[in-house]
Write a structure and sequence with these properties.
Blueprint (H helix, E strand, L loop, with lengths): L1 E4 L3 H12 L4 E5 L2 H9 L4 E3 L4 H10 L4 E4 L6 H14 L3 E4 L11 E4 L2 H11 L1 E5 L6 H8 L5 E7 L3 H9 L7 E3 L6 H11 L3 E5 L7 H11 L2 E5 L9 E2 L2 H17 L1
Parallel strand pairs: 1-2, 1-4, 2-3, 4-5, 5-12, 6-11, 7-8, 7-10, 8-9, 10-11
Helix pairs in contact: 3-4, 5-6, 8-9
Length: 259
């Protein structure tokens, strides 16, 4: 049995590829919606954030032979816990991560953290559009909402907990875009024009995360963009192609048979 940390569209496709290669696989996801998407394609999913100890329990319960970490590039804590769990349970850890985008737009400022992005946005002021999700919304809200000359627009998934978080942060509801992607370049342009955006803040989530479309929209409109770099973790092993992950699983299976 293969345990896979999932939750993104490309991770779901990887899970199917692993299954098609002849492996039993189950996924761990954070939301019920992600679990429903897994169930739709015939894959079982465990819902909830997991500590390393909880992952070890699942590894033992399902006789897991390898952990495939296909969590979001910015879900660094999940990856840390998975690395620890695989080590404790003495099973192979395999990291899959979508390729980074190649960003050539000249009006891009790269930063290493959400805090740095909020600081830069505070200096620029104007109409700031966040496409960084709800998890770190408080960092931007606390820094930017009190400032004069700033209108903060946030785009996030249309979930109840996200709306509750916005309410707790006193985030103006007219500044919330609650929609499920993917978003095309044309739709991004329409949002930016509608709100009169002067600064875009996004994450380097890769082409699958539709970063290219956001950057292209900003570039067409001449809007400056802040890009938050991916966290840099010391992964034991990392692959960027499905085929490489499946080959790694085959090698691990062969090693086990030879013992």
């Amino acid at each position: 049995m293969i345990m896979m940390l999932s939750g993104t569209s490309d991770a779901r496709q990887l899970a199917l590829a692993i299954r098609d290669a002849g492996y039993d696989v189950f996924a761990t996801v954070v939301t019920e919606h992600a679990a429903e998407q897994m169930a739709y394609v015939g894959l079982h999913a465990h819902v909830g954030r997991l500590t390393a100890s909880e992952m070890v329990q699942l590894i033992q319960q399902y006789a897991v032979t390898a952990v495939v970490d296909a969590s979001h590039p910015f879900a660094e804590e999940a990856s840390r816990q998975a690395i620890q769990a695989a080590e404790k349970a003495n099973v192979p850890y395999i990291r899959y991560e979508r390729k980074e985008s190649i960003i050539t737009y000249e009006h891009v400022m790269f930063v290493d953290s959400y805090e740095d992005a909020a600081e830069y946005a505070a200096e620029k002021k104007g109409v700031i559009m966040l496409t960084t999700g709800s998890k770190t919304l408080h960092i931007f809200a606390e820094k930017l909402l009190p400032l004069p000359g700033v209108r903060l627009i946030a785009r996030m998934l249309p979930r109840k907990d996200n709306m509750e978080k916005c309410e707790q942060l006193r985030f103006p509801q007219e500044n919330i875009i609650a929609m499920q992607g993917p978003f095309t370049k044309q739709l991004d342009i329409a949002f930016m024009k509608h709100f009169g955006v002067t600064l875009l803040v996004t994450k380097e989530s890769g082409r699958v995360g539709f970063v290219d479309e956001k950057i292209a929209a900003a570039q067409e409109l001449g809007i400056e963009t802040v890009v938050i770099r991916r966290p840099r973790l010391s992964y034991p092993v990392i692959y960027h192609e499905f085929s490489d992950v499946i080959e790694a699983l085959a090698r691990e299976s062969k090693k086990k048979e030879e013992k």
